[in-house]
Amino acid sequence: MTHPDRRRFLKGGALAAGAAALSAPALAQAPIEWTMVTSWPKNLPGPGVSAERIATGIEQASDGRMRVHVRAAGEIVPALGVFDAVAEGTAEMAHTASLFWAGKARVAPLFTAAPFGLTPLEHITWIDHGGGQALWDKLYEPFGVKPFMAGNTGFQMGGWYTKEIRSLDDFKGLKIRMPGLGGEVARRLGATPVSLGAPDILPALQSGTIDATEFLGPWSDLAMGFYKVAKNYYWPGFHEPNGTGEGLVSLSAWAELPDDLKVIVRHVLAVENIRGLGEAEWENARALRALTEEHGVTLHRFPDDFLGAAKAASTEVFDDLAGEGGVSAEIIESYRAAIARLTPWSKVSEAALLSVRG
């Protein structure tokens, strides 16, 4: 006969062993490891910083269950190869901008910015509340890629020019780094648009391969060193009045994530989208002053005849995209509806205050 105390001991030991057996696999389970390729130099102010914070945020929020390893442009794939890297499974994730993917879908750049289009807050509103996210998903689904807003560099500047632009005629014949729909507008105005990844822009400007470049706002532009070659800095950034960063995720990798980790990834990307925008506004103000007061940069407003022609060309570009039918037409219709809905409010709110605040 087994003593009662011994029975209790054996029963307790069995329960403890069973609990240990159940918990051991969970404790031993290796973290999910993802690679994020980016279109930016390492820690580039603005989007490069956003990419790093996203990776850190996912690991911290998941308590180490998921780790994202950031690889800068050129470490695994070139700056403009990150979409294909995610689509083909070379990486599970990318941080980039949709304005680079016109070769895959002509309308894709609109999800970063469109000429004379939505401002940063208006763009977020359209994506989150106006049906933009569903259309973005629909556009990328055939590639096996899921897009998210993942940071924002805010209003863009009009770009850096080695010579002054006093009229539309001065713009004609220029070779300018300007990807996306803005590049198509530039082409229609008589320039030659060139699409270059971030690491290649300054060498091209220095060598004379290009005559001008746009990039982002003053914070990122200062870090890129464009002021060393071109001293003429133009506004407004009609071609990109917004700067939505794009977080791309492989649909197959996404499907394998547990639901709670999907929530974490979504949340971290959304937080960075707002945090990045606020940071860009703050730092752009500082950097613009540094450029003009410390580095001899001269600010210029684009000439009226140039802006008028650019606006007319932008309308033509939108009409052409709508004429493609299918999802392109759906996206243009939705985007234009968002502008029509939001503009009357923006005029009597932000624009009205700024016009009198001084």
Descriptive account of the structure:
The protein folds into two domains: 30-152 and 243-281, Bacterial extracellular solute-binding protein, family 7 (D-Maltodextrin-Binding Protein, domain 2), CATH 3.40.190; 159-241 and 296-357, Periplasmic binding protein-like II (D-Maltodextrin-Binding Protein, domain 2). It is 53% helix and 14% strand. It contains 14 helices and eleven strands. It has helices at residues 4-28, 47-61, 82-88, 120-129, 132-140, 168-171, 180-188, 198-207, 218-224, 251-256, 259-294, 304-322, 326-348, 350-357; strands at 32-38, 66-71, 93-96, 145-152, 159-161, 175-177, 192-194, 212-213, 232-235, 244-250, 298-301. The strands form two sheets. A six-stranded mixed beta sheet has the order 7-6-8-5-9-11. A five-stranded mixed beta sheet has the order 2-1-3-10-4, sandwiched between helices. Helix 4 (120-129) packs across helix 5.
Helical content class: 40-55%
What is the overall silhouette? globular
Beta strands, count: 11
CATH architecture descriptor text of the largest domain? 3-Layer(aba) Sandwich
Number of DSSP helical runs: 14
Quote the average pLDDT. 93
Q: Can you tell me the residue ranges where pLDDT is under 50 for at least 5 consecutive residues?
A: 1-27
The proportion of strand residues reads 5-15%
Radius of gyration: 24 Å
Largest sheet: 6 strands, mixed
Ends: how far apart?
A: 94 Å
Regarding CATH, which class of the largest domain?
Answer: Alpha Beta
What CATH calls the topology of the largest domain is D-Maltodextrin-Binding Protein, domain 2
Oligomer: single chain
Order of strands in the sheet with most strands: 7-6-8-5-9-11
Number of domains: 2
The string of secondary-structure elements, in order, is HEHEHEHHEEHEHEHEHEEHHEHHH
- Classified in CATH, the superfamily of the largest domain is Bacterial extracellular solute-binding protein, family 7
What is the SS-derived class? Answer: alpha/beta
